[in-house]
Amino acid sequence: AIGAFSAGLYSLLGKAGFKPDYVAGHSFGEITALWAGGVISDTDFYKLVRARGKAMMPPDKEGFDAGTMLAVKGDIEKVKAAIKDHPEITLANQNANIQVVLAGAKADIEKIQQVLADQGFSVIPLPVSAAFHTALVQHAQKPFARALKTAKFKTPTIPVYSNSTGKRHPDDPQAIKNTMVEHILN
């Protein structure tokens, strides 16, 4: 649904005359950015969208904890210092100069939420289905990598920026594909 909606909005904007100088997408949105940047075809876009969604489903294992995420508002360096003795917590996203998202197992996030709140940080639990961009979604990496192998990647028609590196993807289609193999974990 996210892929179809995003592609529909982008197409609608294009019909209204919008032409971006570059594209980027966060997390799942990087697939849409690659499509909008001419790297993947419509067919491969929808195949990858479906494959990623299917891969991200948690394994059917009793007691499996896909984890959760927590937005934290405050000085980023102070947040990093506050979590340095908590290796079970991952700084998954840096959304702004004063906001990060932490990820980890549900019990660990509950604990760090209290620690950070006690230190005066603004903390907001996020209603997500998993601790994205962490090892807790590692089960999805290999199935998505297999799907990527079947997709044909082309040289971008406009610059596409990587969610993982924050830098422009190279023009080499294979290098882009290689980056996307690790995309779910970064």
Protein described:
By secondary structure, this protein is an alpha+beta fold. The protein contains seven helices and six strands; from the N terminus they run H-E-H-H-E-H-E-E-H-E-H-E-H. Strands 3-4-2-5 form a four-stranded antiparallel sheet, covered by helices on one side. The protein has a two-stranded parallel ribbon with strand order 1-6. Strand 3 and strand 4 form a beta hairpin. The relative contact order is 0.19.
Strand and helix map with partners:
Blueprint lengths: L1 H14 L7 E2 L4 H8 L5 H15 L11 E6 L2 H8 L6 E7 L2 E6 L1 H13 L3 E5 L11 H13 L9 E2 L11 H9 L5
Parallel strand pairs: 1-6
Antiparallel strand pairs: 2-4, 2-5, 3-4
Helix pairs in contact: 1-2, 2-3, 3-6
Helix count from the secondary structure assignment: 7
Number of strands: 6
- Major β-sheet strand ordering: 3-4-2-5
The biggest beta sheet reads: 4 strands, antiparallel
Class from helix and strand fractions: alpha+beta
**What's the helix-strand series?**
HEHHEHEEHEHEH
The helicity comes to 40-55%
- Poorly predicted segments: none
Mean pLDDT: 94
Rg, Cα atoms, Å:
18 Å
Gist?
The chain is of the alpha+beta class and 186 residues long. 43% of the residues lie in helices and 15% in strands.
Keywords:
6 strands, two-stranded parallel ribbon, four-stranded antiparallel beta sheet, 186 residues, alpha+beta
